[in-house]
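ok so dumb question maybe but i'm new to this and my supervisor (M.) told me to 'just get the structure for Sodium:alanine symporter' and walked off. so i did the thing. is this what she meant?? sequence i used:
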Amino acid sequence: MEEIIGMLNGIVWSNALIILCLGTGFYFSCRTRFLQIRHVKEMFRLLFDGKSSESGVSSFQALSMSLAGRVGTGNIAGVATAIAFGGPGALFWMWMVAFFGASTAFVEATLAQIYKEKHLGEFRGGPAFYIERGLGVKWFGVLFAVVSIVSAGVLLPGVQANSVADGIQNAFEIDTWKSGVVVALIFGAIVFGGVKRIAKFTEFVVPIMAIAYIVIVLVIIAIDIDKLPGVIALVFKSAFNMEAGFGAVFGLAIQWGVKRGIYSNEAGQGTAPHIAAAANVSHPTKQGLVQSFSVYIDTLLVCSATGFMLLITGKYNVLNPVLGPDGATNYLYQGAQNVSAGPGFTQTAMDSVLPGFGSYFVAIALFFFAFTTLLAYYYIAETNISYLTRNFKSPIFSHLLKVFMMVVIMYGSINQAKLAWNIGDLGVGLMAWFNIIAILLLQKPALLALKDYEKQRKAGIDPVFHPEDIGVSNAHIWNTINKKKEE
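this is what came out, is it supposed to look like this??
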């Protein structure tokens, strides 16, 4: 099984996908005139703009749900594995994916808003919807929906469940299968309450958990703040093969930085647009800008905090791709004895500064980070089921998904960490391939929406979207939305 997954990952995560991800981000940055810099103030203003309705959630709730998907084990365990296999330079390439990916996130989220639909009384949207309505290629939309259901409902949840169980076992010595059962039961209790319950839960939990984690990590960094300039220099030197000690993993730094960057912030992956479509806003660009900002929160804040803490404390390992005598594991750097790549690095780093506290705190943080990500995965899978079954009024398929994901969570908790991550990477890579190709083909409506938004803002108007006025077709839901507001 592990060999088959590894072989498929080698095909999906070839250099072509890495170039495609970085190249697409750079391209959209140029096309949008680097909106990720120009509109930072507007992004922040829009975080609290708009209110929820019977059909949709507020911008902040959509942001929280999106961050629930973005801020997960990738911010704790993912950063650790990126450094373990790619060295400190991998952190720089995660930053690059975030900076350029912010423009990619804008395009995909804006398209999701433009082509969203209403199903069973709720706004639904995402790549499958904009592929069918925007590109007019239904089979491509169906293919993406199937891949998304398999990825979000089967492949990706195992990584989150595995990291939670691993972290809890390290801290509290509780068997992984017991953690899996508890997580699955709590998961079921929330998802059976529908999207509004998911939105309310994430709106409350995500800001608290993210702020608490960042504050604790900043305290640890502040204790050895004199080491920070040297750590930053090490990251840049390693990223450009100017650090002799990590020269053997220079190419891997780019590969793992991009891979873990996409896994963490999800820019271009095609997951976040599903949640962006649920927002109740007057103009698609509003949610597009909010989603861009969420990439910054995820990678430039949370991932950077984890990376700096690991490097400052020195509690990490960097594997040498060249094995030692008799095939033994060889290290370019070993600062964490008998600790495997993953949450163990972060727990060891915290414990080295705050003895007796770090392991417990990381285990708790991992639980909330991963659990909210599982909720986001469920919503993504359910949205694609909604796309495939929108002519049916019965919720039976959604109920089956809930039960199936509970089983996946329990299985993932007892799986081997390496296999769980490989399976997760395969899911991310497949979705990224399909989605990036789609948004490159269907970029014009998003760029027109941005231009229209900027024009209305310049005129001092709270922007309202009228698709026909800018030459965008098949966005029928907006006629209903605007008519309802007029009434």
